[in-house]
Amino acid sequence: MLSGFLVRIFIKDEDNIQNDEVRNKYGYLAGIIGIIVNLLLFGVKVSVGLLTSSIAIMADAFNNLSDMASSVITIVGFKLASIPPDKEHPFGHGRLEYISALVVAFMVMVVGLQFIKSSISRILNPVDIKFEFIPFILLLISILVKVWLGQFNKFIGNKIGSQALKAAALDAIGDVFASCCVVISFLAARFTDLPIDGYIGVVVSLAILYAGFTLVKDTVSPLLGEAPDEELVNNITKEVLSYDNIIGAHDLIIHNYGVGKAMASIHAEIPSNIDVMRIHDIIDRAEREISEKLKILLVIHMDPVCIECKEILNTRENIEKIVSKNPFIKSIHDFRIIGEKNNKNIIFDAVINSQKLKKLKSEEDLKKELAEAIKEVYPAYNCIITIDRDFT
């Protein structure tokens, strides 16, 4: 397999992908191969387009040129992501990769708009397309080359877990479709005088615009702050709960500062009767070991939970049953009862079900609804409820 052969030739210690230097080399290799292949395809298609006077082929050529720019961004992105943190940027410079990709996305969209204009002009003012056999064969070969490039990016993307390279692989598949349309229009020119070339040019230009829009969307999303990877969420929670005397976990928040750079905080529930110094040592060790294992910066907050008071345990169990009937509530945590005799407060945080969030009219109405339902069962208690959100 050519992809594996290239990796073995250019990357030493290829299996050590947890090493940042090795991972960067994978990114550089993918970027350099992308630049070389797309530059060659651009040269071939521009030559064919000029020779045959085909606007569709020219549009496809400049689509490859924009893909070459994306490969440049891949290299720049991996390089910028490796710059160490400084005083002004304590969490590093990883997000510059997204900003650079955003610039390229707008460049891609400008190219698409320009060729839509040119294609419409070609429809209104048709030009004879000169079909020639050798240029036709070159276009077919370019499609096969693009298919291989897509597989190569997918291979590298899966190897190092790079969403950027996986997206590049999907983009390559879209380019294959566009190139096939161009080949069809070129072949059809032999049999009809209709301005099929112009119509296909519009189709290819729209494909370029869509690729640019998708890139903008994928780039803006992490800059705004998107939901974290589900696998990372599950791994953090699982690792935290694996330590002695940690009986629950909630309020996990993950901040993304670029590819492979994340900070996370989580609340760990611990028995309230455990020695403070002992649990502090456990939490410190958990922070250190999980951070190293998952390549993140993890901060753990301790939440003491009463496990001996039957009143608290029984009340919590009953209130969990009451709350579970409300479709907007996912779970509760930080449950406690404060006060004496008939002057007691039930205090807890209720986590909103994120899938129902858009249907929620008011948090205050939700708290009132929960309090009334609990009051029917525990009329002597007052409820102090904090509405919490699920950030994962």
Please tell me about this protein's structure.
With 392 residues, the protein is of the alpha/beta class. It has 3 domains: 2-224, Up-down Bundle (Alpha-lytic protease prodomain-like), CATH 1.20.1510.10; 227-306, Alpha-Beta Plaits (2-Layer Sandwich); 309-392, 2-Layer Sandwich (Alpha-Beta Plaits), CATH 3.30.70. It is 62% helix and 15% strand. The protein is built from 11 helices and 6 strands. It has helices at 2-10, 20-52, 55-81, 96-124, 133-160, 163-188, 196-224, 230-241, 276-294, 310-324, 363-377; strands at 248-256, 262-271, 297-305, 329-340, 343-352, 381-389. Strands 1-2-3 form a 3-stranded mixed sheet, with helices on one face. A hairpin with a 5-residue loop joins strand 1 (248-256) and strand 2 (262-271). Helix 2 packs antiparallel against helix 3 (55-81) and helix 6 runs antiparallel to helix 7 (196-224). It is elongated. The model has no long low-confidence stretch (mean pLDDT 84).
Keywords:
3 domains, 3-stranded mixed beta sheet, Alpha-Beta Plaits, 11 helices, Alpha-lytic protease prodomain-like, 392 residues
Q: Ranges with pLDDT <50 over ≥5 residues? A: none
User: What percentage of amino acids are in beta strands?
Assistant: 15-25%
Q: Which structural category do the helix and sheet elements fall into?
A: alpha/beta
Give the name of the CATH architecture of the largest domain: Up-down Bundle
| Count of separate DSSP helical elements | 11
> Strand arrangement, largest sheet?
1-2-3
The average pLDDT is 84
Radius of gyration: 29 Å
**General form:** elongated
Cα end-to-end separation = 39 Å
| Total domains | 3
Q: Which CATH C-level class of the largest domain is it?
A: Mainly Alpha
Main β-sheet description: 3 strands, mixed
Under CATH, the homologous superfamily of the largest domain reads Cation efflux protein transmembrane domain
Protein name: Cation transporter
Keywords: Membrane, Transmembrane, Transmembrane helix, Transport
Membrane topology: Multi-pass membrane protein
InterPro entries: Cation_efflux (IPR002524), Cation_efflux_CTD (IPR027470), Cation_efflux_CTD_sf (IPR036837), Cation_efflux_TM (IPR058533), Cation_efflux_TMD_sf (IPR027469), CDF_Transporter (IPR050291)
